[in-house]
What does this fold into?
Amino acid sequence: MKGIILTISLFTCIIANSQTYKSQVWISDQGNGTYKNPVLYADYSDPDVIRTGDDFYMTASSFNCVPGLPVLHSKDLVNWKIINYALSDLYVEGVEPAGFFDKVQHGKGVWAPCIRYHKGEYMIYWGDPDFGIYVVKTKDILGRWDKPILVLPGKGRIDPSPLFDDDGKVYLTHAWAGSRAGFNSVMTVCEMNEDGTKVIGEESLIFDGNDGVNHTVEGGKFYKKDGYYYLLAPTGGVAMGWQIALRSKNIYGPYEVKRVLDRGNTSINGPHQGGLVETQTGESWFIHFQDKGPYGRIIHLQPVTWKDGWPVMGINDKNYCGEPVFSYRKPNTGKVHPVETPVESDEFNTAKLGLQWSWHANPRQGWAFPSADGYIRMYGQYYPDNFTNVWDIPNLLMQKLPAPEFTATMKVTAVLQNEGDKAGLIMMGWDYSYIALVKRGNGYELQQVGCTDAEQKTGEKILAKISLDNLMTDIKYNYQTKLENTEFYFRIIVKEGGKCSFSYSTDGRKYKEIGEPFQARQGKWIGAKVGMFIMNQVSDTARSWMDVDWFRIEK
It folds into this structure.
């Protein structure tokens, strides 16, 4: 039996015997008491935020990606760190069909969550447009969360937000997805039990955005302040929408409405959908997203000023409506905190997968095993019989794009055992491209492959290929066994706007571009992602594998 062993690196420099590696490619904190937007240049779409004591916690939509419901932590709303996930998988027994999320379900799954803290428990509500509204709870936000509970079944119910009222009653508002319910732009409210785990009252209409002005109203968040019930909601659509505030003295309305944030004279399109939070010093702030195409929905932070009982967001108020800030003083939390960004690079030095990684579906046994020996082993998975492209391949291990410009790098020892087996680095979305090693006879070749409109079952195209017969192909099974002259280096460079180029090197110093420039494109409700994969060409053949030594991201 013959195979391929080589070391693949996608990096501009090599750090020998590195045990730790950290690179912050986007820093919002300016180090002088101010910050710049976005605070997170990454796809944490539909964010919501709370404060407990001196700690801020945020979650975001994760759709079909697993694990789901990321949990981020901050001390000042500017510097964020990912600390956990609320969902280890997307299967809820007795609700969706068995195996539903074992297949790639692009754009389905976890939509627009809402995080709350009530009676010592952290709670995240979210809507699955095909099955209903769920809640998941924990008393330890860093630990394993409880099993999800179906709060309200039904198709088309999305974007839930609870309100735990002063009199002990609990309410739930949510929006409706036109693709499932047959209508949208409507907000309803109903009563829940005291635990917030089951709806016990009928749904009541509180706002209809089919008024020629506030179309596509959704994603509302419930709050109560100074005797008013507030429902803060996005409207106008993802790319070009705005934020409105509804208020009433009665939970069921009638509600007054004002626009409180829009683009104004800025270049920040569609500033809306997010969460309102108050600091320890009494300041109000609003976290929201901006749609940035291939980068997904990136996160901005706006100051909030209360004016005549209305939350005016941003600056340059015109009739209670502000516009976004590009730079502003940091929130006053009473202390100064160090710069922190979500983890990007991974040395794979622990027996646990890094929190930056996710799959396209529920992972199956045998896809990958982290190792404390300093690498993660990924085993080749078989192509389905009806394969056209990787849109429906679940074993893509990927992470969010972390900045407008960066270089992604990985170092791999690969064993490719069968004709056509391949291992590579991918920029994934509706359009995608990857650079990969492909087994060819007793040798192998380097390919750049591309696909346009992958969701439409468009076939892949080989954009470039280079024979690598001069490299050694002796098979080795022990990761620690090193071969001479087998190092090989890959690289993907991302420039402003998501413009990508692939290159390779045989010495880690001089790189040669391969193939064509590629324009990254977002996926279905998510931004483009960068990551890795390994595939076996034919079923029932010996498994190929690769040991990823490290994956690094730099400016």
